[in-house]
Design a protein that fits this description.
207 residues, mainly alpha, 8 helices, elongated
Length: 207
Amino acid sequence: EWIGLLVSFVLLRRWLARHADFDAVLRLALAVAIGVSMLGVWQHHVGYRTAIAEFDRLETELAIAHRVGNISTIRRLQSELVASGIPLDGPARILWEHRLRNSREPYGFFALANSLAGLLAPLLLIAFALWPAAIRRHRSDTQPTASLRAILPLVLYGLLLLLVAYCLLLTKSRTAWVGLATGGLVLVGNHLLRWLREAPRRILIAT
């Protein structure tokens, strides 16, 4: 795994030597974060309820099939459970059902919510780091009397960041929260130092 990470790092540095290529990968990564966050929010508010209803339906049909002795229906329903990744019996079944009924943490395409949080936290930091540059670019490209249509991209960008942050909050991953807070402090500290260096008088005012 570590060798694979090292090789990936070296290859990406060679393949993304141009700034345009690097920006394209960043946009793709942020798009993935936004899409997975939409899925995670859906899982939290809708997906779990839908999964519970479907599981209860299968359980009811299976109980009725056992009661009447319908072997073909029992085998069909058991095949559906196995195909959905649901254990048929034993401790694994108890743990799976407990997680389904008592958890609401989104997990996206991962097996655990912590894995989803580990993806969203660094991408959210990257998005926050790009926010000041987007504002400066917007100010330079628009006139002082900018219309609402020109401001909409920044507003949409902010709403999408809130969506990713909300999904990260729903994961309840304390490790990802700490990492996000630490990275946020680094970003704020860098901007503060740059702000103080641009005008020495601000250092006196800050002190």
